[in-house]
Structures are given as structure tokens and as C-alpha cells.
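On clarity, I found the account of how folds are encoded harder to follow than it need be. An entry of this sort, consisting of the sequence and the corresponding C-alpha cells, reads as follows:
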Amino acid sequence: MIRKLNRIKTALVDQGKTNKWLAEQLGKDPATISKWCTNASQPSLEMMMVIAKVLNVEMNDLVRLDEAPDPKSKDIAFDDTQNK
């Protein structure tokens, strides 16, 4: 099941921008932007920050917390080695 973790496509539509436009702004392949917009893959946290800046929106506007994975799920492996 693909979780819709980001709202990049919604933000682009709201501003009348295209995937191609965002790819040009970020210097990324349009196929990569397409994968992000369909939630087939997710950009890094750092890239989400850049996207928010380019779109002039808050980071929270691009993230769907209601779709976040349940931390108690056995299907998700969390790497907490950096917190030790």
C-alpha cells in the first residue's frame, strides 16, 4: 500500500505550477518529481525543506501527518542508532 505522505502535487496545483517547473527549479529529473508527486517515492527531509522554500509554503503544508506510519507497526523498522 502506498501511503500519501506528501502533498507536493497539491501545492503545485494550488499555485498553478507543473512538475516540469519544479524539476527545473530543483535541477532534478522530471521523472523524480513525478515519483514524489504520486508518492511512489519520497524526497529527503532536506529536499522537502528546499521544495517548501521554492513553493513559498510551510514545511507542514507539504507533509501529511495523518498518513504517517504507526510507530508501533511491526512493518516499519526505525533506525534509532543516532539517538544513542
